[in-house]
Structures are given as structure tokens and as C-alpha cells.
């Protein structure tokens, strides 16, 4: 029953989300359809598509973004990961940021979904096993952290962790589709959130 309740809560959150462009509108439909029709949607056992959570991590002044240098994608990128059975995707995003960056304190700017996207993942080898191409049904959350806090890499996933200016974060990515369709969009949305008072 807990699984059904968690799924229904997530579906309600996604239904309440207001898409800002055609990408989000179409991906919202796809994610809802997959939640309604796919089995094991919160598990990597579903080899076609599964739920993931990502984070756009900013400093309290909203002037910098924290990125990691992702080993598989060979690019500076946002942080995030697989749900792996967890249906509270905000908590997944927070945990992934802590694991990937070494940050101890990470706070949600808002508990609401910040962005959503269906992302294609090309086939690749992870831990010596081939992972076939599939979809990440992704919810993104806006998180906040102290830019002076200690950072550390997660060697099996990334080889760098660094703060960038908003424009610098977009330019640092070597993935054109992510730069143009996701990271620019996230920075644009960030303008709606005032800096955290000191």
C-alpha cells in the first residue's frame, strides 16, 4: 500500500506542475504515462525507462551553480541518480548531491518540482556490465548549499566538483543538448527565486 500511496503522491505533484515550454509539456505527458503503465518504474530492473532525480545546486546568493565532472558523460554536469525503489525523489536528489559532492548540508530551496524531462541515455559500460540505451524519467529539484563548504569527488562517478557562475555552468558542459535545452532553462527559472536572506 505504501508503494501505491507514494506513486499517487508523485503523480499528483507532476500533475500540479506547470510546464514552461513544449519540452516540459510533452515530457510531463510521457512521464505520467510511464508511471501509469510501466512496471518497476522506480527500479533499474525496468530496462526501457525508470525514474531518476537531479539537482540544480545553487549558492544562497543565486550567483553560482555546483557541478561535477561526470566520468561516463565526460562532461561537467548536474548531480542526480536513480530512484532505486525510493519514491520521494526530493530525498533522492539530496542524497545524490551529498554522495557526489561530499557536501554535508544541502537544503531544498523549495520542495516543489523545479523542472522535469525525459532524458535519453546511450548504452554504456558501468562496473564492467553493459547497460543498454534507455530513458531517464527525471524530476529536477532546486537545492542550496554553502559555496565555502568542503567538497570531495566520488571517484567511481566523477573526477571533479566545482562551483561555476550561472553562465559558466552552461558553458562548462560539453553536451550541446543539455546546454541548450536543460541548463539554460534551469538558469532562467532560477531568476524567479530570490536570494536567501543572511
> Segments where pLDDT lies below 50 for 5+ residues?
none
Distance from N terminus to C terminus (CA atoms, Å) equals: 42 Å
Please estimate the helix content.
25-40%
**Which fold name corresponds to the CATH topology?**
Nucleoside Triphosphate Pyrophosphohydrolase
User: Given the C-alpha coordinates, what overall shape results?
Assistant: globular
Mean pLDDT: 94
Derived from helix and strand composition plus strand pairing, the structural class reads alpha+beta
Descriptive keywords:
two-stranded antiparallel sheet; 5 helices; Nucleoside Triphosphate Pyrophosphohydrolase; single chain; alpha+beta; 198 residues; eight-stranded mixed sheet
Q: How would you describe the overall organization of this protein?
A:
With 198 residues, the protein is of the alpha+beta class. The chain has a single domain, classed as Nucleoside Triphosphate Pyrophosphohydrolase (Alpha-Beta Complex). The chain is 33% helix and 29% strand. The chain has five helices and ten strands; from the N terminus they run ααββββαββββββαα. The strands form two sheets. Strands 1, 2, 3, 4, 5, 6, 9 and 10 form an eight-stranded mixed beta sheet that branches. Strands 7-8 form a two-stranded antiparallel sheet. A hairpin with a 2-residue loop joins strand 7 and strand 8. Helix 4 packs antiparallel against helix 5. The protein is globular. The model has no long low-confidence stretch (mean pLDDT 94).
Amino acid at each position: 500500500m505504501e508503494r501505491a500511496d507514494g506513486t499517487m503522491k508523485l503523480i499528483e505533484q507532476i500533475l500540479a506542475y506547470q510546464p514552461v515550454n513544449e519540452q516540459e509539456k510533452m515530457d510531463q505527458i510521457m512521464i505520467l504515462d510511464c508511471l501509469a503503465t510501466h512496471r518497476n518504474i522506480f527500479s533499474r530492473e525496468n530496462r526501457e525507462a525508470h525514474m531518476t532525480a537531479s539537482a540544480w545546486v545553487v549558492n544562497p546568493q543565486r550567483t553560482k551553480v555546483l557541478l561535477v565532472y561526470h566520468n561516463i558523460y565526460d562532461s561537467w554536469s548536474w548531480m542526480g541518480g536513480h530512484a532505486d525503489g525510493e519514491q520521494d525523489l526530493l530525498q533522492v536528489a539530496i542524497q545524490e548531491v551529498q554522495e557526489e559532492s561530499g557536501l554535508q548540508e544541502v537544503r531544498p530551496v523549495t520542495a516543489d518540482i523545479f523542472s522535469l524531462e525525459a532524458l535519453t541515455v546511450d548504452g554504456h559500460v558501468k562496473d564492467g556490465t553493459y547497460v543498454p540505451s534507455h530513458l531517464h524519467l527525471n524530476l529536477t529539484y532546486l537545492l542550496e548549499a554553502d559555496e565555502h563548504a568542503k567538497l570531495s569527488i566520488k571517484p567511481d562517478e566523477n573526477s571533479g566538483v566545482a562551483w561555476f557562475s550561472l553562465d559558466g555552468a552552461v558553458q562548462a558542459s560539453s553536451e550541446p543538448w543539455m546546454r541548450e535545452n536543460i541548463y539554460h532553462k534551469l538558469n532562467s527559472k532560477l531568476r524567479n527565486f530570490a536570494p536567501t536572506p543572511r
